[in-house]
Amino acid sequence: MIDEMNEEMQPMRGTIEAKDRFAVAPPGHSLTIDNTRWAWGNPPQDVDPEVVLDKAIMNLKKPKIRDEMMKLLLGGVSIETMIEGYILQGFQDGRFTPDVGLLIKPPLAIVMAGMAEEEGIPYRMFENKNAGEENTMDDKTFLRMIKTNNPRMFEFIRENINESIREGERPPEENFLNAQLNTEEDE
Predict the structure, then answer these.
(1) Which residues lie below 8 Å from residue 153, measured CB to CB, with a gap of 6+?
(2) Domain-by-domain residue ranges, the chain?
(3) Is residue 112 a contact partner of residue 79, using CB atoms and an 8 Å limit?
(4) What is the pLDDT of residues 51-74, one digit of tens each?
(5) Which residues have CB under 8 Å from 13's CB, separation 6+?
(6) How far apart are the two ends of the chain, measured CA to CA in Å?
């Protein structure tokens, strides 16, 4: 009777419920096996960012690659996306390490943007339309934070502003130093 109940409670063979949760490799298993069969598991071909950047620029100047890049730019693909793809492929192929790829990202982006401008091709530098504007801190929040975390700096800034006002000078309009800060006593 008990055996029959156990059989009824067992999940059907081949289903996800029947899979043994412990029938997987233990954590860290991938660090114990030889990964030299993949290109990224071997030492990279180049470790100097300048060499990698020079090779990337030389490739971009090849007519076929340049034409493909211009088509992608016309199609709305951002320079950032193309460079990230290049870095990923370069690492996967064992040409360079990810840190070298990240080091060449800014100068390579400038070269690609320059090539697009020479051809009169419109381009997007970043994937996000407001890449440099999102998640910015307003002046009030900054001053409240500096007052809490660095009171000596806050007092220094406050004293400089007050001294300028006493001398008849006004701080520039667009400046974090002249943002109004409501202290807890004011609220």
Answers:
(1) 146
(2) 44-119, 139-178
(3) yes
(4) 999 999 999 999 999 999 999 998
(5) none
(6) 74
Cα 45 vs. chain centroid, distance in angstroms?
24
Cα(79)–Cα(122) distance, integer angstroms:
11
> Which of 121, 124, 119, 41 minimizes the C-alpha distance to 83?
124
| CA–CA distance, 8 with 27 (Å, rounded to integer) | 33
The pTM of this model reads 0.56
In tens, the pLDDT along 73-93 reads 988 899 999 999 999 999 999
Q: Is the pLDDT of residue 155 over 60?
A: yes
Q: Per the structure block, which two tokens stand in for 156?
A: 């220094």
**What would the DSSP string read from start to end of the chain?**
-HHHHHHHHSPPTTSGGGS-TT-SPPTTGGGSS--TTSGGGS--S---HHHHHHHHHHHHTSHHHHHHHHHHHHTT--HHHHHHHHHHHHHHTTSS-HHHHHHHHHHHHHHHHHHHHHHT----SSSSTTTTTTTPPPHHHHHHHHHHH-HHHHHHHHHHHHHHHHTT----SS-GGG-----TTT-
